[in-house]
Amino acid sequence: MRPNRPPLIYEVHVGMAQETEGVGTWRQFSDTVLPRIVKAGYNTIQLMAVQEHPYYGSFGYHVSSFFAPSSRFGPPEDLMALIDAAHGHGLAVIMDLVHSHAVSNTVEGLGQFDGTEYQYFHAGPRGHHHAWDSRCFDYAKPAVVHFLLSNCRYWLDAFRVDGFRFDGITSMLYTHHGLERAFTGYDDYFNASVDEDALAYLALANELIHRLRPDAITIAEDISGMPGLALPVDAGGVGFDYRFAMGVPDYWIRLTKDTPDEQWPMGHLWHELTNRRHEEKTISYTESHDQALVGDQTLMFRMAGGAMYQHMTLDDPDIGVARAMALHKMIRLATLATAGSGYLNFMGNEFGHPEWIDFPREGNGWSYRYARRQWSLVDDPGLKYQLLARFDGAMLRLIEAADLLSTSDLMPLWEHDGDEVLAFVRGGYVFAFNFHAERSFTDYAIPSPSGSFRLALNTDDHRFGGHGRLLPDQVYHALKDPNNSWGTRLSLYLPTRTGIVLAPIFSK
């Protein structure tokens, strides 16, 4: 049984999980990567590209054989062994389930399986997803619905997965597939463009999955923001347990790419981090595989650039790398601390994996150079990557030990654009961030709950590559302040580009 706890998801692609240039296997992943995930502190693995797909570079999105684990990663028994091993470590395993479309191929796959184009798919233009070069299922056909529902049960029964990430459901939900559409109001979610057959299928799929495995989790990947996806059917929803907060990583990219550090708007940042319907559970993240695929960059590489090639040794004081590392930690802490009910990270990004993901293709000479993970970077005691990984682990342990993702009492305390300071409270813990590029603040007053607090985590700690400007475990006492709505305040030393977490001290 999957433990009932907020998911801390480690998103993985088994083929590119090895450092050698080539395709990794289920068995190699079990032996070499699984122990890393356990050590890192994540409690859930999200397997991408599981279902058989002819083109490796599709990241598993163009499925040809829905009931077959990809043969390029090894025999099915090795995938079963991987899942068993993960369960043995107490990890849940969910898989990416692609029911939003299928590969167009006719030699392999369902294309013209019986000689027609409409056995599984819509006939005519509606059956072709021209942006993805794939085929679109006709969810009005009972045989198609039975096929896809059987597929859900197959992975639960035969491989004992603990749930699914339903990929690309925006494309399913609307006849326009969400392409070049801005969803600005509720009229965009409730009109003739909604594919009600697809919506009904998703509700049926969630009903089936939860009847078979009440402890299973389902996650909706939807960029439109359709309301009710993560509500029970009897509450008018579709039945997913969670939905991804897909606006959060997009906002971090816009900030780091287009906005000077000294102009980051704290009020807008708070809005984007917490902009969700609170009756629906959400999973937040700073970056997934989507943000690092070719044409994009990992967050660390976007901020540090080419300096990562020369200035990541421990004794190198390069200011560009120092800025990137400081913000990398702060961005992750702010995202996790404000997450609705779960958190996700793509493998390697926790330690600032450089560059991008680019699978072998004609345009790069069929190279595997960027379709791998350079674990040797974080294993090298002389490089700074280990410091980012150490912080990520400490951050996860703190959040999980306090069970903060199970609380809904997330409230702002202070935001100031000029000072670049943001503070909030959750589960009694106080989080304060100074994003300012140059100014440190002494005796900085923020409204706060009453009581005393201990410094539980700070991004400026020497252990995490910081400057060590704060004393570990120091205690803060809230003072009376009739001038704010909380009635008390904290006076803090907030060094530049530093985030701190204050744990409440409960009297015995």
Defining key terms:
single chain, 508 residues, alpha/beta, eight-stranded parallel barrel, six-stranded antiparallel sheet, 20% strand
Description:
It contains eleven helices and 22 strands. It has 508 residues and is an alpha/beta fold. The strands form five sheets. The protein has an eight-stranded parallel beta barrel with strand order 1-2-5-9-10-11-12-13. The protein has a six-stranded antiparallel sheet with strand order 14-15-16-22-18-19. The chain has a three-stranded antiparallel sheet with strand order 6-8-7, with no helix packed on it. It starts with 7 loop residues before the first strand and ends with a strand.
What topology emerges from the helices and strands here?
Layout: E1 8-13, H1 26-40, E2 44-48, E3 51-52, E4 65-69, H2 76-88, E5 92-97, E6 102-103, E7 128-129, E8 134-135, H3 142-159, E9 163-166, H4 169-173, H5 196-212, E10 217-220, E11 242-244, H6 247-258, H7 266-274, E12 282-284, H8 299-304, H9 319-338, E13 342-346, H10 375-379, H11 385-401, E14 411-416, E15 421-426, E16 429-434, E17 441-447, E18 452-458, E19 475-477, E20 479-480, E21 488-494, E22 498-505
Helix pairs in contact: 1-2, 3-5, 9-11
